[in-house]
Structures are given as C-alpha cells and as structure tokens.
Amino acid sequence: MTFPQIAAFARTADGSPSPVRSIAxxxxxxxxxxxxxxxxxxxxxxxxxxxxxxAILFFRGGATGKxxxxxxxxxxxxxxxxxxxxxxxxxxxxxxxVTEHTRILVFPRTANxxxxxxxxxxxxxxxxxNPYGTAAVRGIGVDPIHNVIVVTSYFQNxxxxxxxxxxxxxxxxxxxxxxxxxxxxxxxxxxVRLHPPKGWILDPIGxxxxxxxxxxxxxxxxxxxxxxxxxxxxxGGGGEDGGSGLGSRFTFNPKTKELYNNRGSIIxxxxxxxxx
Amino acid sequence: xxxKTLRSRQSAKAVAALALLGSLAAGLLYGGSWLVAAxxxxxxxxxxxxxxxxxxxxxxxxxxxxxxxxxxxGAIFSAVGVDPIRNEIIMADEGENRIMVYDRLAxxxxxxxxxEPKRILQGRNTMIQDNCAIYVDPVTGEIYSPSADTSxxxxxxxxxxxxNVKPDxxxxxxHRPFGIAADEVAQELFxxxxxxAAVFVYRKGAEGREAPLRILEGKNTQLSGSMGIAxxxxxxxxxxxxxxxxxxxxxxxxxxxxxxxxxxxxxxWENADQLQQFFRRRMVPGxxxxxxxxxxxxxxxxxxxxxxxxxxxxxxxxxxxxxxxxMDMDRREVYVANSMDNALLVFRGTDSGNAAPLRVIKGPKxxxxxxxxxxxxxxxxxxxxxxxxxxxxxxxxxxxxxxxxPLRRIRSAPEGTGSPMISHLGAMGYDTKRDxxxxxx
Lengths: 276, 441
Description:
The complex is a heterodimer of chains A (about 280) and B (about 450).
Chain A: E1 6-10, E2 21-23, E3 37-40, E4 45-50, E5 55-60, E6 71-73, E7 87-90, E8 95-100, E9 103-108, E10 119-121, E11 137-143, E12 148-155, E13 158-165, E14 176-178, E15 193-195, E16 200-205, E17 208-213, E18 224-228, E19 249-253, E20 258-263, E21 266-271
Antiparallel strand pairs in A: 1-2, 3-4, 4-5, 5-6, 7-8, 8-9, 9-10, 11-12, 12-13, 13-14, 15-16, 16-17, 17-18, 19-20, 20-21
Chain B: H1 2-30, H2 34-43, E1 60-64, E2 68-71, E3 77-83, E4 88-93, E5 98-103, E6 119-122, E7 135-136, E8 143-145, E9 153-157, E10 169-172, E11 177-183, E12 188-194, E13 197-203, E14 214-217, E15 226-232, E16 237-242, E17 245-246, H3 272-280, E18 289-290, E19 294-299, E20 310-312, E21 322-328, E22 333-338, E23 343-348, E24 359-362, E25 371-377, E26 382-387, E27 392-397, E28 408-411, E29 427-431, E30 436-440
Antiparallel strand pairs in B: 3-4, 4-5, 5-6, 7-8, 8-9, 9-10, 11-12, 12-13, 13-14, 15-16, 16-19, 17-18, 19-20, 21-22, 22-23, 23-24, 25-26, 26-27, 27-28, 29-30
C-alpha cells in the first residue's frame, strides 16, 4: 500500500486491466494506510478516511484523477483521533459513524469542516473498552431497517460482535453480543459488512466469512460460512482480520449476488447467491 | 382508566405506524424485499424479532472458487538500488513481496515479452512484506528491505541471496517506515516514518531490537507524512520528502519518550497490529491537518525537535506525492520521484522556498509512469527510475531533461500490459451506479 489510490474497476474485470479511473494525488488529500471505503448509493458519494490527518473525506461518486474531496470533516471539535478502521454511512437517517478505539462518534452525514459529533457512545457499559489489551473497537456497520449498529471489537483479546440500538448514546449497553468459541471469531475485523434487507452480518473469521443474523446472540456459529476454495489451507485462517483466504477486505453486490474479496494483491469475485 | 387505555392504544399505534414508515423508507432505499423488512421491523415493536430457524444446522458451508481475478501482471516497482561493483540493478516489487535483481545493463528489446531477472528473493522465509524501499550497500552488496506497514521487520540479505531464504539479519523498525538511506562515512542507516512522522538513525549494522542512535521528531521539525530520504554526506545535510498529512503526538508520548520495544509494559507488544493500535492512541484527537508537500532540509546529525534549515515548498516546485529521493553529492543535486506527475524532478541541494526544479524529466518518451523509486549511479553517471505504473525501470544519462527517451529500460511484463497497480489493499467497496469495484489502498 505504498501508493494510495481509490481505484475503480469494471465489475466484470478479469486479468490485469488498468483501473477505469483512479483517485490519487496531492489534491485528493488522501494518504497511505486507508482501511475503509464506502460508496453511498443514495447520495452518490464515496467516504474514506485520512488517518494521519484525522480526517473523513467525501468524494463525488464519479470522482477521478486528482479531484479534491467535496467535504472534509477535520478539526479539534470533531474529537477524531484514528478514524480509518471503522466507518459507516446511514443513508436513511443521514448520519455517519466513526469507531475510535473505545468509543463511537456519530456525525451528520453532511458534516464538513470542524464540527462536533452529535452522539458519542462510550463508557464501561458499552463493552467497547478492552482493558486487557491495546485494541478495542474496529469495524462498524449500520442497519437502518432493523435499527441497529453492529460493531466488531476485542475483549480480553478475543473478538466479538456487539449489536446496539442504532441511536444508542452515552454509557449504554449493547442489546446483543455474538461471542464465544463456537462463533469462530478470533480477531476483530474492520471489514465487517451488513446486508440490511436480510438482516445479515458478514464478518471475517478464521476460516472465511461468517454470516450471522442481526437477531443472533451468544456463542453461536454463523448461519453461513463462506470459504475460498482456491485458497490454501494455511490461508484460510487466523490473523486479526480474519482469514487471508477470504474476508480480510471484502464487499458485496446483492443485485448480482457477488462478493468481491481482496487477498494480498489480487481481487477475486465470487458468486454466493444463497445469501442474497 | 378506559380513556388512558384508549390513549395508550392510540399512542402505541402511532409509534408503530411511525416505525413502519421509517422501515418502509429504509426498505425502499435498499430495494428488494422491503415489505418483509417493514413487517419485521413492525413486529419488533411488540416482541423480539424472530431469529433464523434453530432447526438449521450451523454453519452452512459454501465453498467457492473465484469466478474472476484481477491481479498485476508484471512487477509494480516501489524502489530501486544499484550495486555499482557487481553491475546489478535491484528492485522491490511490492505487489508480489519480492526483490528482483537484474544486470545493470539489461535493456528489454521492444519485441521481447520481458527481461528475466538474474535472481529473485521471495517467500515466507524472506520476511519480505510490503517492501516499500531498497538500500544496497555499495561495498558489500547487502540488500536492506524495510516493510511499509504490516511488518516491523527490515530484512537484510547478503548480495547473492536468492529464493525463499531467511535474511542474514533482521532489524526491528518502528511502524510504517518508507524512505531509507545510509551515511557510508559514519556507517549510519536513516529511516523515515510517515505517522507519527520521524527520522530514525541506526547503526548500519544494527539488528534485532537495537535502539536507534538518534530520532528526529516533534512539531518543530514540520515532518508530516514523511516519505523519501536523501543524504548529502559531503555537506552534512539530510533531505526528507513530506506529503503533508499529520497530527500531533500527546505530551510525553513521542518515540523518544517511549521505549519502542522491549521494556516495561510494552514488552508484550510483539504483535504488529497491537503496536499499531497503541501508536494510534498516542495522537491528540482533532489535531490533524494537511499541508502542502515539501522537501525539508536538516543537518545530517539533527535530532530531537529541531526546525529544518530550509524548506522547498510551493506551486513552482511541482511536488505531487514525492516518493523516494537520491542525492548527486558531487553536483549537490537531489532527484525526486514525483509520482503523481509522472516526472523526475531535480532540485539544487541549496534550494529553498518556492523553487522550481533545475531539471524535469517528463513526457511520454521518457516511459516514466507513476515513479516511486530513484537511484543516482555516481560511478556510471546514470539515474534509474523504477515505475509503479508500467512494470518497468528506466535509465537516463545524468543531466537529462525534458521529454527524452531512456537509455535503457527493464520491462517485467509485455509492452502494453495493463496495470491495476494494486498492492495490499486496505478496503473494498462497490459503486452500484457505475457497476464498479472500488479498491482502496
């Protein structure tokens, strides 16, 4: 990841094509070490973070080249410290979520410049803290149909999924937890994705991508386990972000029932019609 | 009581109706089975929603091979070094986590598919990972390979190492280094880190958890997303390229204040990821800022929180994501791989302020495409540029300027091969409007 860019490839691309467009360069205010991207299909925007500058960047959906972001959320009032591991857009309620080690900041989706969060979820009851290690909260997703946010986190250095009411604020406990040895969750992935129409939580685990329901609770295996048949056994598991075989960085397209996965320096497209 | 009950029922219905409306809106936006989604949301008002059937045996395993694969064909070169004694060009291919060694005079014929390297270092044993830079010892030929992100190991190999071999030694580095350079007189190794931005100086033969000799860091340094480094040991100056994104470190939590490795409560942080998380918490929330790109010039022995002697910055400089740099000490010129301008910039070592480059090598004939690496070969009076964008390195005579064809090129893929330029992606997205996969690195 020496050279940062947002590269767009045709969905059906195969082989070694150049990107159809690439957002890169000084004017974009991007920098290295980006770990999250989300496309907002309602507002046709792209959201990423610049972790070094503690900023959230919003680009026009069709941005290309050295195009500047249309909004930059940055400054002392934001309280943003390390924003790029967990970000989520709520396109229905027009809010964005930023995970920050042991808490979650919520901003208006159109926030620009130096603005404070409108909600902060933090405190011992949230179980977002991890006194046993340095890492706590990682990935986040928002499901406005079921009105929940889903967070991946560490506790006692084991990975967990926490489910909160979408508007939870302050020192509020999660409404459900998915954790335990039967879940297969070992790390805390920032790649967690939600599919609200089905109420799915897709979270990388040691051996692939686990698919849970937002209604699941406790020490319960995923309903589905998606595995990369082309990856070697040694690639299937372990690591903080789940298996390198499938799930360390991924997203999906429910319309074509495809899942797009990054493994090392390749992008793989899979078909999983069963879960969509 | 009946009125209250009636009002309660009416209130409950109103709440339920509003919830239904909200979920209907959400469902419409998501398309698909919005009616089902709305019904589920409504039912949650009175009782917990139904989970999936408990009779289903979990998990249902779905194992698939990919239908399509996008990958780099050919190398994406992040850095280049030259062994002038043995006449070899050594390059880092970050896409495949490998080091490729070529004959210095190799020149890929136009009709050839590619030039085969003489040696390749690659494999799990090598510890080569996210290899962003290369340093080649001009006397011993040793190859130094730091890791830009996922590893804290700089692997050092003997000059004839090849295949999947362990490094001869490993130096534990801070997180996220990029530029590397050596003071051959003092036998010191310089390493720039991007965030928190700093320059670490080690004994050149350092290994294991050996502490740096000195650290250049702090707000006064104006180091900000530090990338390439160049040294002028004749004039005792250090050049550092800035990209401009940074935030402040909390009081008492600078690199110099903390033991990076080994002592006290930090001893358990062996895991690179945990160390990274710790470093992120060192920053002052909301202190982030983005400044224009620059080249900062310091005394070679600078340490601590000292200001640069000179700053090259401004629109005339043409700097646009400056990557690696290299010094021609005899002429006191600094070469800069200007990645987003597809150019090699040459500045005077004494430049300051909004200075235009002395020379610019740029244009379609040059075959420079997203240059990341640069090396000035003083012995042969040539400058080599390694490209991220078109699978090749190109060689120019010293003094070249303008849109001039290279003397030689080393190509690692057939001419015209596309270049996804993907390496260790950070995240994936999908653009529903344009039917595009978004890859963020």
